[in-house]
# Entry
Amino acid sequence: MNTRNDLFEDTLEFEDRLELRHPRATDGFHLNQLVTASPPLDTNSVYCNLLQCQHFADTSVAALIDKRLIGFISGYLLPNDAETLFIWQVVVDAKFRGHGLAKRMLNWLVAQPGTESARQLITSITPDNRASWSLFESLARDWHAQPVKEMLFERERHFAGQHDDEYLLRIAPLPDRPQDSIAHFYSDLRSRLRFPSGKRWLE
# Structure
């Protein structure tokens, strides 16, 4: 366990030592260890993490200090909709939280060539994950975007009571996108809101 002095040294000169880059296959095992050490995040197999780092490298970001993985965001463009970037998981080493690293990684990611086709960002969040709600709501404010919340997967219906509900959060437009992005987004939203389920709403 780190002492207080060790912790101070870990976060010293954070800005100068931070490297953001797309992941590599060699990051997969370290990503698995980082997620395992960061409850309540859902863990995946090492093989899954290797595939994330290799197949979805252009739409993901790794954060390193002194070549050590301290943060990771996995994402991908929807297979049937290259204008939508789905953020699968955000993880930051506990020792480096409170520095705005997750927000920095997301801003870096949406500015990369691999995500330039995306006009909106979506992610799923459980109701009690306040850190994630705060992160994405803060991003929406920074981007002058409108967050939209809707039910994605229900505890009983989809998880057989073994997992909390998952809500989908949509944010559009993304920064530095064409001016018609927001019109495109709300046109799509209006068509979606015609469904009679009553489970979609703006907040």
Q: What stands out?
A: The chain has eight helices and eight strands. The longest strand covers residues 81-92.
